[in-house]
Write a sequence for this structure.
């Protein structure tokens, strides 16, 4: 191919074949704008009767040497979106033939108008018009329906490719970048795999994504224009999370002080334009989606900047400004936006301090058993290196659940679920149990800091008898904390020791454990049967700890409990812990996401193994199965973690038959 078609190739034949004007008396061009990929001009054609018809023609910029993909996207968008209600100029013709170099798009002239100036930013009324236009784009195709065949899915950022672009970006602009912004961008680029993986699991509403929705790609109408706002430059259009466009405009187009003043009003206007609910819950959900996807805007800025380093384009960036000034301004604004959102989390979010913990909270509370109360202990570890998870829970129960019990579950990717689940005589205050088939000793070596668990007995795995010996130590690795409204102590821990199994093969199997875990101790009511609840406990690779409980009780507002704790900070109480998508409760391998405040966290859990255990239902109630899994967590600041999720009891039936303690007789001691 000799070169791309240009405005110089317009002739009488082209005017006749493309515009349908035969015997034109002449034409003239008025350059409108020059972008990174395409340039646009108004074409004024004088008809044989003397009338002048004006259209906008776009062609490839002569300096573009990149991929065909942006041209293909733009061509398919204009060819395929005919009939949709979109704030775009009507397409009269579009052509793409790489073999001959022909690419053009012919659009109706929007009339008296001007392109937005990204550096100056839009006026307050224009920002509202932009929100209305964006909402129109996003409601044009039902997000619940299939992706149109003329638009590609949003590509996943490639770590290596982004890393190369970022190196080029820093080499080109490094001396002009704020060091704080450079640090933040380093974190985003280093964590891009986790961030994108995490965002993909959240189920954000999908739709047409413009891909570069900022003020500079809007044509703002003046008096007499056909539309108040026309959205241009569709060379990055994809199908993906709609909120990416919203984050783009808010972060790139608005100076930070303007954005902060008008943020809530702009979100409200966007939701009004979508035509859905505009209540506090809808705005809160939108805020969270922005928070979880805003990092993609920084990726976009870095990649756009390195495609055109140092390219002078005063028509686009404004008189006297270079495209370098434009992208550095965009970069600084996006980094400031991410800082305001709290991503990545550089310092722990403020919150209410946890209640003080007393040494007595470590030990048994004899007065807590009876009158509908009970006392329970849980010890758990999830070791991704050793590929094993251990969960131990034992309790001194009231008549509500008819007796004391011990349950143990050991699971791993190459292990069957091994379960010990048995009623016991009421556990003594020294937390020891000796009975046929099992011996357990729970020793407090150093109150609130170190507990040693020895347990030996016979377990069951798929009908087979398995010998179990646990010799494990829980060492506190963060401050113990009490739940805000419930007498429950939780101690984040590092767990070391051994698990010895016999009966799974000809040889005894010994597994060394050295991994994050936790233990808890509760003395409270245990009537979990009349509520929905989901709990999680996670340890992250920055040594932060998170745990939360989402409780749904009929007739009252949702209840949230839990703690957040940084590596060097005291625990604070959770204000909000919400399961974002319950999904199909019978899909055991589904991911589960939690919204956690303070800090605008989204935490997503992916199960590795399941450790369901039955639990007696109490007088007049069916036995229940508590669903329990260990696995990996991702957090929306790019951190990864490991831990456990436990969710509400379900009645036992043929589909939920798991090992569990038989109900003891009422006269059990």
């Amino acid at each position: 191919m000799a070169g791309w078609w240009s405005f110089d190739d317009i002739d009488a034949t082209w005017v006749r074949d493309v515009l349908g004007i035969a015997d034109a008396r002449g034409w003239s061009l008025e350059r409108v704008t020059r972008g990174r990929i395409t340039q646009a001009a108004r074409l004024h054609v004088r008809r044989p009767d003397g009338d002048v018809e004006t259209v906008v023609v776009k062609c490839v910029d002569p300096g573009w040497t990149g991929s065909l993909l942006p041209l293909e996207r733009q061509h398919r968008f204009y060819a395929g979106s005919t009939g949709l209600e979109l704030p775009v100029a009507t397409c009269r013709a579009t052509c793409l033939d790489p073999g001959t170099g022909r690419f053009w798009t012919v659009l109706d002239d929007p009339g008296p108008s001007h392109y937005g100036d990204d550096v100056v930013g839009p006026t307050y009324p224009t920002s509202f018009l932009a929100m209305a236009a964006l909402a129109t784009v996003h409601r044009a195709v039902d997000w619940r329906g299939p992706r149109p065949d003329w638009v590609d899915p949003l590509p996943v950022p490639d770590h290596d490719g982004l890393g190369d672009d970022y190196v080029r970006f820093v080499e080109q602009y490094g001396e002009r970048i704020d060091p704080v912004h450079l640090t933040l961008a380093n974190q985003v680029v280093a964590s891009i795999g986790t961030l994108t993986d995490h965002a993909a699991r959240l189920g954000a509403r999908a739709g047409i994504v413009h891909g570069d929705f900022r003020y500079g790609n809007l044509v703002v109408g003046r008096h007499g224009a056909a539309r108040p706002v026309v959205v241009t430059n569709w060379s990055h259009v994809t199908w993906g999370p709609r909120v990416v466009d919203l984050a783009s405009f808010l972060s790139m187009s608005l100076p930070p002080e303007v954005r902060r003043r008008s943020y809530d009003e702009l979100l409200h206007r966007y939701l009004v334009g979508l035509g859905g609910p505009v209540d506090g819950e809808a705005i809160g959900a939108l805020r969270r989606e922005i928070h979880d996807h805003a990092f993609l805007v920084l990726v976009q800025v870095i990649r756009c900047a390195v495609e055109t380093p140092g390219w002078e384009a005063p028509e686009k960036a404004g008189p006297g400004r270079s495209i370098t000034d434009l992208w550095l301004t965009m970069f600084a604004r996006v980094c400031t936006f991410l800082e305001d959102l709290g991503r990545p989390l550089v310092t722990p979010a403020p919150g209410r301090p946890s209640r003080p913990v007393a040494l007595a909270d470590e030990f048994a509370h004899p007065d807590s058993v009876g009158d509908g109360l009970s006392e329970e202990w849980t010890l758990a570890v999830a070791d991704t290196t050793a590929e094993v998870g251990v969960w131990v829970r034992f309790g001194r129960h009231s008549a509500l659940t008819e007796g004391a019990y011990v349950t143990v579950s050991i699971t791993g990717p190459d292990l069957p679920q091994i379960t010990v689940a048995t009623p016991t005589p009421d556990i003594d205050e020294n937390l020891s149990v000796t009975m046929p088939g099992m011996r357990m000793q729970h020793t407090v070596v150093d109150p609130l800091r170190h507990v040693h668990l020895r347990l030996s007995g016979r377990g069951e795995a798929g009908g087979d008898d398995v010998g179990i010996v646990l010799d494990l130590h829980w060492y506190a690795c963060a401050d113990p904390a009490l739940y805000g409204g419930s007498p429950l102590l939780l101690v984040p821990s590092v767990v070391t020791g051994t698990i010895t199994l016999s009966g799974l093969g000809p040889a005894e199997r010994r597994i060394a454990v050295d991994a994050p875990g936790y233990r808890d101790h509760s003395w409270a009511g245990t009537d979990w049967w009349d509520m929905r609840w989901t709990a999680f406990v996670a340890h992250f690779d920055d040594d932060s700890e998170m745990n939360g409980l989402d409780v749904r009780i009929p007739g009252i507002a949702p209840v949230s409990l839990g703690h957040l704790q940084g590596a060097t900070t005291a625990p604070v109480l959770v204000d909000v812990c919400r399961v974002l998508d319950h999904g199909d409760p019978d899909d055991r391998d589904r991911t589960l996401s939690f919204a956690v405040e303070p800090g605008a966290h989204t935490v997503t859990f992916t199960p590795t193994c399941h450790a369901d255990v039955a639990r007696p239902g109490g007088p007049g109630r069916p036995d229940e199965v508590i669903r329990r899994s260990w696995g990996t967590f991702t957090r929306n600041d790019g951190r990864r973690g490991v831990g456990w999720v436990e969710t509400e009891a379900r009645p036992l039936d043929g589909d939920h038959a798991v090992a569990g303690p038989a109900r003891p007789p009422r006269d059990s001691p």
